[in-house]
Amino acid sequence: MSMQKKARKSRVPPVTLSPEERETLQRYERGRSVSQSLALRARIVLRCAEGKMDKEIAADLGVDSETVGNWRRRFGAGRVAGLSDLPKPNVHRKLSDERVEEVIRTTLDALPKGCTHWTTRKLSRETGVSQSSISRIWRAFQLKPHRQRTFTLSTDEFFVEKVRDVVGLYMSPPDHAVVLCLDEKSQIQALNRTQPVLPLVFGQSARATTTYSRHGTTNLFAALDIATGKVIGECYPLKRGVEFRRFLARVERDVPKPLDVHLVVDNSSIHNTPEVRRWLHRHPRFHLHFTPTSASWLNLVERWFAALTEKQLRRGVHRSTKELQAAIAAFIKNHNNNPKPFVWHKTADQILDSVARFCTRTLETGH
Question: Which one of 3, 115, 156, 175 is at 20 to 30 Å from 48 when CA atoms are compared?
Fold first, then answer.
């Protein structure tokens, strides 16, 4: 019996690996950038190289011994390349490269008559290529004619300097100071649905009518502390320099006296009225840092405004501005009970490089 085992063992082809092959298989084995099937084949070959028998490897990896023997032979015949999947038989491309190029060029360079963008059906009628083939081509080349994103490039002549100033505050705040991102969310409407909102029930989402009645507006002034995530907020009936000065006085009361106050604000005219300048002159611990024009994304309080809109305003029902202001105050209070700061990660150089790359791509496309 032992002689039969030795004879069977001698018939198993030995597997020897070069240093390059071992390194490649070990990278495949980790499975971070390859499919799980290829990672399994790499594990099989590596264990074969350790001198283990097929049954032992099969039990170790949870496969049958025939699978182990198959990949042992495939590796012996084709080495690392032999572990890849072979082309499926009798499967041929139905579209030539020329037809694929025609679909791509038509998508990029032409427009359908009377429409602003292509759909798979329109392009199918135009080119004679099936709708499913066009869908596959669009997915392969990441073409999405049905989508359109918006952008605005800042034309501020001091764009670079302002980006470095504001991002510098985020990445390296000054000592003995508090950094507040301040902005206004104007014209928040108190909306009441014309019919009752139907609540959430099993198998049915909450439902509300699309029609509503207006009951006035309010303007929220908010300042976000980038270190703690806490928010100072007040609502005013109007958005003027007078209200901005009143809100600065509120911030003055809330921030401890020994600390300097650095405020990140946008270029709204209310931030630079004569009354505001006189107030700032009387309070020298306040320092204003202006974001570039058309760069509201640089002000972190905008992220908090988005949370307010999503969690309170969009689905809220308010029958008066007092109800609306009470709801906003409750949201701020609840937020400040467990605040979490928004962490800024990108450096000024990374932002400027990203803008430069975008501008270069835009110029290269000729649009």
Answer: 3
Co-location of 184 and 324 in the same domain? yes
The length of the chain in residues reads: 367
Domain membership of residue 358 (yes or no) is no
Statement to judge: residues 173 and 296 lie in one domain: yes
Residue 265 domain-assigned?
A: yes
CATH number (domain holding residue 258): 3.30.420.10
**What is the spatial distance between Cα 161 and Cα 97, in angstroms, rounded to a whole number?**
49
Same domain, residue pair 71 and 126: no
Structure-token match 């270069």, residue found: 360
Res. 2 pLDDT band, cuts 50 70 90? very low
Residue 217's domain comprises 159-202+210-350
Mark out the alpha helices in the chain (DSSP H runs): 2-11, 19-30, 36-49, 54-61, 65-78, 97-109, 120-127, 131-140, 159-171, 241-254, 274-282, 301-308, 321-337, 348-365
Closest CA to 228 of 343, 357, 147: 343
Nearest to 192 by CA among 176, 204, 177, 209: 209
Pair (174, 230) in one structural domain = yes
Q: Is residue 115 part of a domain?
A: yes
Q: Are residues 215 and 170 in the same domain?
A: yes
| Residue 233, phi then psi, degrees to nearest 5 | -145, 145
Residue 296 maps to a domain: yes
Over residues 55-77, the pLDDT tens digits come to 888 888 888 888 888 888 888 77
Read off the pTM. 0.67
How many angstroms separate the CA atoms of 359 and 161, rounded?
18
The more confidently predicted of residues 8 and 294 is 294
pLDDT in tens, 272-283: 999 999 999 999
Q: pLDDT tens, 107-141? A: 988 999 889 999 999 999 999 999 999 999 999 88
Residues 108, 288: Cα–Cα separation, whole Å: 46
